[in-house]
Amino acid sequence: MRWISEKAKIGQGVLLGENVIIKEDVVIEDEVQIGNNVVIYPGCFIGHHTQIGDNTIIGKQPSPAPTSTVKIKGQFPPTQIAPYCIIGTSAIIYAGTTIGERTMIADLASVRENCHIGDFVIVGRGVVIDNDVKIGNYVKLQSLAYICALTTIEDYVFIAPCVVTTNDNFMGRTEERFKHKGGAYIEYGARVGANAILLPNVRIGREAFVAAGSIVTKDVPPYKLVMGVPAREKREVPPEEWVENQAEFKKFQK
Q1: Which is deepest, 37, 118, 178, 179, by most CB within 10 Å?
Q2: For residue 25, what are the contacts with CB-CB under 8 A and spacing of at least 6?
Q3: 3-class SS at 98?
Q4: What residue spans define the domains of the chain?
Q5: CB atoms within 10 A of CB 76
Q6: What integer best gives the mean pLDDT of the chain?
Q7: Signed CA dihedral, 120, 125, 131, 133: sign only
Q8: What is the spatial distance between Cα 68 and Cα 236, in angstroms, rounded to a whole number?
Q9: % pLDDT > 90, the chain
Q10: 3-62+74-252 sits in which CATH class?
Q11: What three-state secondary structure class fits 176?
Q12: pTM of the model
């Protein structure tokens, strides 16, 4: 069985699985493929040739716990997904979020409200992206990374598996924390190795390299490699590793 609102607009060549629910004012463009048990909430936009896996939820409004410091007034606008995206099985994408062209949100990923994700982005299996996150183009977030609220990630950044970002040095205590709360700012082409931890408000410079297992407690200058606990500068990042000198980069610039 399926339930499709009479107010939804479904394009040509759309394939719908079983038990799909499409609510009012949803727009689904041509040649979209939607798996089984998918729920698409009111007003969402799904661009042409996008694929959505089984058990996925698109456009869910957030419902914070009574003790949460996240306060929501009113509803967020519907989710917008650009053409040629791939949304994996059991992913959840909340309302107020926009996703650019040819981006992949893999199985079991969660993208919270009010996020912007650019074009040609890979969000790996089980990645969690909290609210109010900005992600540029050609970013790669590998499996099980945690991107906390208020984080900004510029173009061509690489985040390895199990990286953790943080935004509250007070861990939920004192009113003072609200003055300092903020996620990392990761500049163009930076790379962060597996299991690294970024403390609140640190800035990772352009083309910087954070070694696996490091704990970053202060800003990392552009083009520097840091490692350790706490992370310290070790050397320059060589030009042959810069984004602009990669064959993949040159291919996409044509």
Answers
A1: 118
A2: 5, 7, 8, 42, 43, 78
A3: strand
A4: 3-62+74-252
A5: 18
A6: 95
A7: negative
A8: 42
A9: 87
A10: mainly beta
A11: coil
A12: 0.95
